[in-house]
Design goal:
Elements: H1 3-11, H2 14-50, H3 61-82, H4 90-117, H5 124-144, H6 150-181
Length: about 180
């Protein structure tokens, strides 16, 4: 363990680490909000060509920003509800399910899309530089402090794999619906 991680371990309580879950995700969403609307509009044909299923998906700058707003607000709501959870409870599991989804998001779409498209895609910098190391730290800390067991990790990632797509599509379509309302 390097000195930086030791300093963090000594200076942050576990509950403070839990509060960093929505905060770190917010920093990531800010990168996406600053770059995604322009990037998506410029790369829409390439995006549609690289989707795993053929679907007539629509993006507008307003829809993208509203989807990101939801993707920022929901984790804070989850944290408010769950941060006081005791060890090995559903509340802690839910908060770490959110973090497992964030960790999956580092690889799909961020790293995978950057490699496949051979270019920057919105969010890849904070995904790799913030979300990946923070996720590893938070999961390691949860294990070390016995908030999660090895079995919890397996089930978290299985559930995260199952819900990641539906959550992403729900955020997209909710943002689209909200954009039409305004």
């Amino acid at each position: 363990m390097n000195n930086f991680v030791r300093v963090i371990d000594r200076s942050l309580t576990f509950k403070q680490v839990l509060w960093l879950i929505p905060i770190v995700l917010t920093l990531h969403n800010i990168e996406e909000a600053l770059t995604m609307p322009t990037w998506v509009m410029a790369n829409l044909p390439l995006i549609k060509e690289n989707l795993p299923i053929a679907i007539d998906i629509h993006f507008t700058p307003a829809q993208l920003l509203l989807s990101l707003l939801l993707a920022t607000a929901v984790p804070f709501i989850v944290a408010i509800v769950c941060v006081d959870g005791e060890k090995r409870t559903k509340k802690i599991y839910l908060l770490f399910l959110l973090q497992a989804i964030v960790l999956l998001n580092v690889f799909i779409p961020h790293i995978a899309a950057s490699v496949r498209m051979r270019q920057y895609n919105p969010g890849v910098i904070t995904a790799v530089c913030l979300n990946l190391p923070f996720s590893l730290y938070a999961f390691r800390r949860a294990y070390r402090e016995q908030y999660l067991t090895p079995r919890d990790f397996i089930s978290l990632f299985v559930v995260a794999l199952l819900v990641y797509g539906p959550v992403a599509w729900t955020l997209h379509f909710a943002g689209e619906w909200m954009a039409k309302m305004f």
